[in-house]
Write a structure and sequence with these properties.
Elements: H1 4-42, H2 53-61, E1 65-71, E2 76-81, E3 88-91, H3 95-107, E4 113-117, H4 121-151, E5 157-158, H5 176-190, H6 192-197, E6 205-209, H7 216-227, E7 231-235, H8 236-239, H9 246-261, E8 264-269, H10 272-275, H11 283-300, E9 308-314, E10 332-335, H12 341-352, H13 363-368, H14 375-391, H15 399-411, H16 422-440, E11 448-452, E12 462-465, H17 476-497, H18 505-520, H19 539-545, H20 547-574, H21 576-589, E13 591-593, H22 594-600
Parallel strand pairs: 1-4, 6-9, 6-10, 7-8, 8-9
Antiparallel strand pairs: 1-2, 2-3, 5-7, 11-12, 11-13
Helix pairs in contact: 1-4, 5-7, 9-11, 12-14, 14-15, 16-17, 16-21, 17-18, 17-20, 18-20
The structure holds adenosine-5'-diphosphate (ADP) and zinc ion (ZN).
Length: 602
């Protein structure tokens, strides 16, 4: 904690500076506004005492004017006419020319008294300020923004000695193979000399590939924790700034800090934000390039003596600039996968350590039902279930709390409060029944676990299939049947109500993605052939292949979707009795569980 104090002080100083900036801006503004009004009030101009400029010129020529009073810097002049008590006010378009004109008349023998008064000091200051105001304000704003960006104090040093919770490898579940490589890095950090003497090159950069929440940050922290070195972190998106050059200077500062505390770990999250492939183009990109270049310069400039290991995380390795992957930079890459069944169980074990969980809750079962979830999501489920147990006034976390938390995390919050019409309800019931019934008649689809017409999050209802197996491969048949299940919702709506709703849009989105992947990534279309073109990765790849190819892909995707719809429709028509039974049960009780569903099909 000791180490935090100077940082705190710095922060306070920065805040004070910003407040001072705001204060000065406010004062300048006040002077400007007050002066502005003084200046105009002084002229006491009203409709009655106005004298048009042309009239004034004429009256001067006619010798009707007795006295003219001018103020330096002002276009408003006061005029005293002969035989008129009240003074008049005239706006003069060009004071210089006007003065010359009056002086000419005086020289000609016209008896005009011309008074030229110096400017009121306050007015003159305020006038200057007022003209400069826009510039001043822009400068002040600029300063404030710059300071604020510094205020977040990025690149915090997590001094491992100071923080009580040192992350260790024990806190990281699963990832056994990955850990092996991590242990090596820990060795480097602990005894850099030994490796140097042996002539072994110390790795400089390690890229961690993986979905968000798979534990990349956790593992980086654990490396620092095991090696007992400081952990300095920053997120790639923080480097992207609106001011050119700021990203690069931030990288420089980050590494300055790192050099001071080396040996240490520098962790850059979301490196794709700065390390995206360099393409010529707009300003934002060239800013990225500067930032990326600076990062490369820093990494290339590491001394062999300095032990700074840069760990960077990304979800989109294909986006990265190849320059990052060259030797001496991020030449090691580790893929962090979504945990498998055993990994999930271990993660659940770690995160349930400090929680009271009912005896009958089996972590193994939860692990079986949560295929595809990341470590972060699993941790989240356990945390949510503890909250729900507290709300439900349970002594310990019960099975139902965990089930509720699971739904909350995966589908979104239950929205029982939303009232919806009988027609909506019927539509939803038949839509979900469509998904469930079709899925039941397809070999490859997992059994239905739960159907509900209670809206959750964005979905009006949902049909959950069981997930009890971690699959490495999915067959073409399975994908085609999945498409049929997805299309079944809309098909049922059309058959029963002869109307269709917007409720199926998410189904179509998912279905289209699957169909597209089948054709373009998995080579499952005979027409398009065995080719892999990831359009999202590289849109140019498609252009390269030509228009005909793009058309063929589009046609194939459409065929897949259309035929899935036809087949789904056929299954529903063959089993209308089941569709009605499921939908009616849903309308009656809103949810159907696995056993109830099976009973309908017995
Ligand atoms: P990422 O950096 O990949 O987005 P994080 O490391 O931030 O993911 O993970 C978020 C949280 O999820 C961690 O703090 C931890 O609580 C949990 N978590 C993720 N993976 C694991 C794991 N393998 N073991 C234990 N906890 C994990
Ligand atoms: Zn649906």
């Amino acid at each position: 904690m000791e180490n935090n104090k100077p940082e705190e002080k710095k922060k306070r100083e920065k805040r004070d500076k910003i407040l001072l900036g705001i204060l000065i801006t406010a004062i300048i503004l006040t002077i400007g506004i007050v002066g502005y009004f003084l200046f105009f009030y002084e002229t006491d101009e009203t409709e009655e005492n106005k004298l048009a400029y042309t009239d004034l010129i004429k009256q001067i020529a006619d010798g009707e004017i007795e006295r003219i009073e001018m103020t330096v810097g002002s276009t408003t002049v006061k005029v005293k006419q002969k035989n008129v008590e009240e003074e008049k006010v005239t706006i003069v378009p060009n004071t210089q020319a006007f003065v010359e004109l009056v002086q000419e008349k005086v020289a000609e023998g016209n008896n005009i008294k011309l008074d030229q008064k110096p400017q009121n000091i306050l007015v003159s200051i305020s006038q200057t300020v007022f003209t400069l105001l826009p510039t001043l304000m822009i400068v002040a704003l600029f300063v404030v923004v710059l300071k604020m960006q510094g205020l977040g104090d990025k690149g915090k040093i997590y001094d491992q000695d100071a923080s009580k919770e040192k992350v260790k490898f024990d806190d990281v579940a699963g990832l056994d193979e990955e850990k092996q490589e991590m242990i090596e890095i820990v060795q480097f950090l602990k005894e850099p000399k030994k490796f140097n003497e042996m002539g072994a090159k110390i790795p400089r950069g390690v890229l961690l590939y993986g979905k968000p929440g798979t534990g990349k940050t956790l593992i980086a922290k654990a490396i620092a924790g095991e090696a007992n070195v400081p952990f300095i972190s920053m997120s790639g998106s923080e480097f992207i700034e609106m001011f050119a050059g700021l990203g690069a200077s931030r990288v420089r500062k980050l590494f300055e800090k790192a050099r001071k505390v080396a040996p240490c770990i520098v962790f850059i999250d979301e490196i794709d934000a700065i390390g995206s492939r360099r393409t010529s183009g707009n300003g934002a990109e060239s800013e990225n390039n500067q930032t990326l270049n600076q990062l490369l310069v820093e990494m290339d400039g590491f001394d062999t003596e300095e032990t700074i290991i840069v760990l960077a995380a990304t979800n989109r390795p294909e986006m990265l600039d190849k320059a990052l992957l060259r030797p001496g930079r991020f030449d090691r890459q580790i893929t962090i996968n979504v945990p498998d069944k055993r990994g999930r169980e271990e993660i659940l074990k770690i995160h349930s350590k400090d929680k009271k969980i009912a005896e009958n809750v089996k972590l193994k079962t939860i692990a079986e039902d949560t295929a595809g979830l990341t470590g972060a999501e699993l941790a989240n489920i356990l945390n949510e279930s503890a909250i729900l147990a507290t709300i439900n006034e349970h002594e310990v976390i019960e099975k139902e709390d965990i089930e509720e938390a699971f739904k909350k995390v995966t589908i979104g919050l239950q929205k029982t409060s939303r009232v919806y019409s009988e027609k909506d309800k019927k539509l939803t019931a038949y839509h979900e029944a469509g998904h469930a019934v079709v899925s039941q008649y397809l070999e490859t689809q997992e059994p239905v676990k739960e159907i509900s017409i209670i809206p959750r999050g964005m979905a009006g209802g949902y049909t959950m299939n069981k997930t009890n197996e971690d699959k490495n491969y999915i067959s073409k048949t399975e994908m085609e049947e999945r498409l049929m299940v997805l299309m079944a919702g809309r098909a049922a709506e059309k058959i029963i109500i002869n109307d269709i709703s917007t409720g199926a849009s998410n189904d179509f989105e998912v279905a289209t993605k699957i169909a597209k992947d089948m054709v373009t990534i998995y080579g499952m279309s005979d027409v398009v052939g065995t080719i892999s073109i990831n359009v999202e990765k590289d849109p140019y790849e498609l252009q390269l292949l030509g228009e005909k190819y793009a058309d063929a892909i589009g046609a194939e995707v459409k065929i897949l979707l259309d035929s899935a719809y036809q087949k789904a429709q056929k299954i529903i028509l063959e089993h209308m009795d089941k569709l009605h039974e499921v939908a009616q049960t849903l309308l009656k009780q809103e949810t159907i569980n696995e056993q109830e569903f099976e009973r309908i099909f017995e």
